[in-house]
Amino acid sequence: MTKVVVAMSGGVDSSVAAALLKEQGYEVIGMMLRLWSEPGKEDSNRCCTPDSMAQARRVAAKLDIPFYVIDAKDVFHNTVVQYFLDGYARGETPNPCLICNRQIRWTFLLDHALALGADFMATGHYVRKQTTDKSHQLLRAVDRGKDQSYVLHVLNQAKLAKALFPVGDYPKPEIRAMAEKHVLPTATRKDSQDLCFLAGEDYRNFLRRNAAEMLRPGEIITRDGRSIGEHNGLANYTIGQRKGLAIASSVPLYVLGKNAGSNTLIVGTQEELGSRELIARDVNWLSGERPDEPFQADVKIRYTAKEAEALVTPVNGNQVQVRFEASQRDITSGQAAVFYQGDVMIGGGIIL
Amino acid sequence: MIYLDYSATTSVDPRVIEAMTPYFSASFGNPSSVHRYGQQAEAAIDSARETVAAVLNCRPDEIIFTSCGSESDNLALRGAAYAMREKTGAKWILASRAEHPAVTKTLLHLEKYEGFLVEWLDTDEHGMVAAETVSKSICNNTAIVSVMYANNEIGTINPIKEIAEICKTNHILFHTDAVQAAAYLPVDVQALGVDMMSLGAHKFYGPKGVGALYVRKGTPLVSHLTGGGQEFSLRAGTQNVPYIVGFAEALRLTNEERVQRVTHVKPLRDQIIGTVLETIPDSRVTGPMESRLPHHASFAFKDLDGNLLLTLLDAAGFACSSGSACKTGNPEPSEVMNAIGLARDWGLGSLRVTLGKDTLPEHVESFLGALPELISKARKLSR
């Protein structure tokens, strides 16, 4: 029997993933990571609390599969949480889920799964994997609204070879129905939102508690360099933000960008919002091969963004220039730009 | 799967199940009832009590049946603490640093909520409490001394006789947690000299959910579970007749077969210790080599995540345990690891392998064959 380790969170998706794989005849083993949480807030985290662990354990018992917990506190803190803090320190808006997927789930956890003798690792991600005789591809999930391919653009062929994504073929309501059919303890749990280690709070509170020195007041300036106010720490603002700027102005002003070097916040009018171009660095090509020629693609600039038509041109080193058909609002450095052709995810990189 | 975690629990001996069965449906009365049903049930627990007393070499009315070893510890410590304070005003309790949580947590409770004072007796690097340590620490305000007969994590057998002597001379109550010891060591309370002794059936091929506390006649004890007067008004609650019968039968068989069982497990245990030390780099035995439970092997491995090792072992078909594992994946070295002064980079990598009467040589061979690679895998992943 082919052995697969299912990365379980206690939530519906990973629980049903395990059930599906068992039905399909795999020898399934459930595994969960104990991640880092702020001391004293172990029970408030969105994911992987002692409570959700108990939940995952019950699901495993119901499905009659072994269940193991692996300690990943330190590695999670040192890679994911640190990446999060470093990103804000650089004036970016980081997406730590990208690092978590690459380093924690698909390296650390995958290594453990393989050590147990597993042939594959599966997650409850809404994404589809397609294998031709040449390579593995990741496709958007059948349920477009739930599609999670965006965070998986960091995977490579070697990791994809070991991956299974059972739930991506189904719309979410059907997954919930399956959970109910199997009478899985998680069937009625709500979907989780937001970053897993923020203890259910705003990221700003987290930064205040863990990297207060990052939040230094500085100048608010316009694109032409005029100083018009003071901000209370760059990390407190998001690109495109309008409210909370505390500037007296006759016209609405929006956050256009951040300059970490000078600790300045750049604001402008609605007309100044939006851009048709971005550069992304550290691009990962799912196929493993960097294209020589520019290509048309649908590009997502944020997990929740709608994809937009663009021309993607590989440029120096491992970067791409993305030129959109239409102007895009709130292109945010630190977020990922991910390119699709049809349902196939081609690759992605971090927006400069 | 090969089970190597007998210190955690054992299966119920079929002979014990046979002894218990009549008391579920055929003879189901409440021992406190006046009628024939009650009389039969009472007869069963009386008989069980006599059987246990025979093994312990004490009077039947010195045996109180409880729900488990932990409850026996609770009853002994709380019961004697209150009683001694009432009787003599003494309020110090002495216990070793390596006790089971059922003892340590109870004492911490007594300290925090009831105004008792607790002194923790140091152990040596093998977890042993020396008799001198006890004699140096007691004073005329000491109510109770509690030192376990044998340690569950590292197998240490403490000098119970000697400690009992000291307590007797100084008129201090001596309680010993013998939950781990009873499976393989003699439990003659006169020979040991203890005033109270805790036992739990599921460590010696009896069912989970029943234990006993020996209380020497004359020992002042305040009841813990109050109510209907059962168990000499010391432990209320309708007695769990079939399980009490099971407890007695399991203890009787253990006593009868003790020598064979020890002869069976000891060489296998020694083989494990010898082979591990030879084949695994950066490994050490925790607990003493002599004065050690005959079925018990425990180790510390440097730079290893003990929880991860158990996971790999289980996936490979071997059930073991450790002093630093936690099912929520958050391993911290146990109190015992700290008590014996084990550095953290060793203490997180503990492994306990305990054998039973049904362990076969091929089980041990298989385990020893698989272990080096699993340790190596775990070490690589823990880096």
Query: How many strand segments of chain B?
Result: 12
Helix fraction of chain B? 40-55%
SSE order of chain B, as H and E? EHHEHEHEHEHEHEEHHEEHEHHEH
Number of helices of chain A: 7
Query: Greatest chain-chain interface?
Result: A-B, 18 and 15 residues
Low-confidence stretches of chain A: none
The ordered H/E elements of chain A are EHEHEHHEEEHEHHEEEEEEEEEE
CATH fold category name of the largest domain in chain B: Aspartate Aminotransferase, domain 2
Report the end-to-end length of chain B measured between terminal Cα atoms: 28 Å
Oligomer: heterodimer
What integer is the average pLDDT of chain A? 91
Largest sheet of chain B: 7 strands, mixed
CATH C-level category of the largest domain in chain B: Alpha Beta
Could you give the distance between the termini of chain A? 46 Å
The class by helix and strand makeup of chain B works out as alpha/beta
The profile of the biggest β sheet of chain A is: 6 strands, antiparallel, barrel
CATH architecture of the largest domain in chain A: 3-Layer(aba) Sandwich
Number of contiguous helices of chain B = 13
Mean pLDDT of chain B: 95
Question: How are strands sequenced across the largest beta sheet of chain A?
Answer: 12-15-14-13-16-17
CATH homologous superfamily assignment of the largest domain in chain A: HUPs
Lay out the secondary structure.
The complex is a heterodimer of chains A (352) and B (383).
Chain A: E1 3-7, H1 12-23, E2 27-34, H2 50-63, E3 67-71, H3 73-89, H4 96-115, E4 120-122, E5 127-131, E6 136-140, H5 157-161, E7 163-164, H6 172-181, H7 203-210, E8 218-222, E9 227-231, E10 254-259, E11 264-268, E12 275-285, E13 295-300, E14 308-315, E15 319-328, E16 336-341, E17 344-351
Parallel strand pairs in A: 1-2, 1-4, 2-3, 4-7, 8-11
Antiparallel strand pairs in A: 5-6, 8-9, 10-11, 12-15, 12-17, 13-14, 13-16, 14-15, 16-17
Helix pairs in contact in A: 1-2, 1-6, 3-4
Chain B: E1 2-3, H1 14-20, H2 36-56, E2 63-66, H3 69-88, E3 92-96, H4 101-114, E4 117-121, H5 131-137, E5 142-146, H6 160-169, E6 173-177, H7 189-192, E7 196-200, E8 211-215, H8 230-233, H9 241-279, E9 283-285, E10 296-301, H10 306-315, E11 318-319, H11 335-339, H12 344-347, E12 350-354, H13 361-382
Parallel strand pairs in B: 1-11, 3-4, 3-5, 5-6, 6-7
Antiparallel strand pairs in B: 2-8, 7-8, 9-10, 10-12
